[in-house]
Amino acid sequence: MKGISIKDIAQQAGVSPTTVSFVLNGKGKEKRISEQVSKRIMKIAAKLKYKPNQLARGLRTGKTKTIGLIVEDIANSFFANVAKVVEDEADKYGYKVLFGSTEDNEEKAKGLLEVLRYRQVDGYIITPTLNLDKEIASLQKPVVLMDRYFPNVEDFNYVVVDNFQGAYTAVSHMVDQGYKKIAIITTSSTQIQMQLRLDGFVQALKEHDLPAGKNMIKRLAFDLDRPGFIQEITKYLQHNTDLDAIFFATNYLGICGIESIRGLKLQIGKDLGMVSFDDHDIFRLHSPSITCVAQPVEEIGRRLIQLLIEELDNNSVTRAHVVLPLELRKRESTMMRMK
Amino acid sequence: MKGISIKDIAQQAGVSPTTVSFVLNGKGKEKRISEQVSKRIMKIAAKLKYKPNQLARGLRTGKTKTIGLIVEDIANSFFANVAKVVEDEADKYGYKVLFGSTEDNEEKAKGLLEVLRYRQVDGYIITPTLNLDKEIASLQKPVVLMDRYFPNVEDFNYVVVDNFQGAYTAVSHMVDQGYKKIAIITTSSTQIQMQLRLDGFVQALKEHDLPAGKNMIKRLAFDLDRPGFIQEITKYLQHNTDLDAIFFATNYLGICGIESIRGLKLQIGKDLGMVSFDDHDIFRLHSPSITCVAQPVEEIGRRLIQLLIEELDNNSVTRAHVVLPLELRKRESTMMRMK
DNA sequence: CTGAAAGCGCTTACAG
DNA sequence: CTGAAAGCGCTTACAG
């Protein structure tokens, strides 16, 4: 059970632990340890397969080389894909990732922050829930927000996508394709990313002089389960038979939307056009395939780590607000309008 | 930056750090600390929002309350879903999860083990790559394997599914549905879980007196990317036009299979039946929907943590080999045979 | 060129 | 009933 410690090496090399520490941390030259001694120490360390105890090091230095990643739901493909990139990128800098899912629940998020805090993580990547700004501000460590941010708080780094532009682009594309009565199905969340998607939707309708009244906007409680979403969407579609296209504000709404529309025996693209926010394997493979505005997952992950590492390494406190564009992926669900 | 330590509380309470430690660890009674003192300490700790430094505690006790989770690919929906359950379950016992993806690459896996080891994780859940048994055996901490195991090594706990039965069931179902020339598309991996799926496939064919020759088995290099898989599958199908059904041995092969078959303008279910190992949102939503044998993700996650915690808490060293059944989900891809 | 010593924040065996 | 002290394995300011 007991591992090799610096003491063991010191003993075998006939020097002090101090010297071993210097050499192993590459400070041999700086501290003017003789070549001989350095080599001897290195050799012994290698032979014994010495691995520094990160706990002890962390306790002493205050650095754990660990990043806390808080997402909404690690099982959701968007977050899982970002997590993968984050993991890879963090690894390049010697950091490991502790993760947790909030389910977008405030209390769960606070619990996660608390746990990560007393595990002394060096920095955080956080998909915040509502009202989490105070908690985050008290973290005293580098933080980068993802997916959403606090519109009233300038003081956090973040990497998000241009939700307004994404929604606007999606809806304009539908208009170009000949759809005229376009509704949005979104969640009841008042968070900024959802608000901006709604704003982009409304703006696009207005600019094209299309009806943008209340019944073109359907908000669903975001704590429903899949059958609940499907039921609600189905009901809405049944009561609004004059619609000719739907913009779904998240990928899971889009997926539930497909099931709802098919349940009603309507043909996607022909009877009812659709675009979803956020891509998903399903959208590419479904027939008809589903048009979407896709998030640049790779770049999101890379920028998150890049910002975090910058602050971690340089101790610089630059505030960066990164807003990445979305990409419209035109597919069959908006290509089959019979006009 | 500096947090509240046990010393601060001791000072304010006018007692020693020892006493504070006893009280805060619920050993007040056992150590016969007076009610008065205990209450005073608790109150001060609460007021100061004291959080024990896990690093220091870990250094002293050798326990970090951290589990290392090594999967093949956290972005793959199966592993992402298991990770979610593992996270939730671990949380119930006060454990956090450090994760990493191996890409089924031996060297990457070894690197991960090394990192987790010197971060002193208390236990491991590992999706092993080939030849990782020596490394794992040297871990000196509780380990539970998932998804696959080492057939020659009895000494590890594991939670897997009954791959043989799953493949056998899938193929038998196809036979029942009237398909007669059934091929398997699998990877070139020689790992046990893939071998058993192949064995189950062959066994089912033999029992039904169906051709089970070499050209009914297509193995693909597992390091191909998506277009590579699609190209290879397409080529295989073009050269074997007499097949009437395919069993795909993993969900990503199934997904690529859908694309390949559609690229060839064949109708799934009618021209070519298909079943995939492992369910996926896509299979449920695709039209036609895709029959699969599904893994019990929830139960896998629960059993993994249960086994690990058992060993962690009781220090018991029971060897448990859990083999869970798969569930055949009959869908349209095996329902449309014209006979 | 090298080392003794202090200290990070805990826990626990020992002493009284 | 309570506390002084040692120690987990490191790093680093200080001394020589």
TrEMBL record, chains A, B:
Boundaries of every HTH cro/C1-type domain copy: 2-55
GO molecular function ontology, one term from the record: DNA-binding transcription factor activity
InterPro entries named among the record's database cross-references: Cro/C1-type_HTH, HTH_LacI, LacI/GalR-like_sensor, Lambda_DNA-bd_dom_sf, Peripla_BP_I
Identification of the protein by name: LacI family DNA-binding transcriptional regulator
Organism the protein comes from: Chitinophaga oryziterrae
Residues covered by the HTH lacI-type domain: 4-61
Domain of life: Bacteria
UniProt keyword annotations, A-Z: DNA-binding, Transcription, Transcription regulation
PROSITE patterns named among the record's database cross-references: HTH_CROC1 (PS50943), HTH_LACI_1 (PS00356), HTH_LACI_2 (PS50932)
Gene3D superfamilies: 3.40.50.2300, lambda repressor-like DNA-binding domains
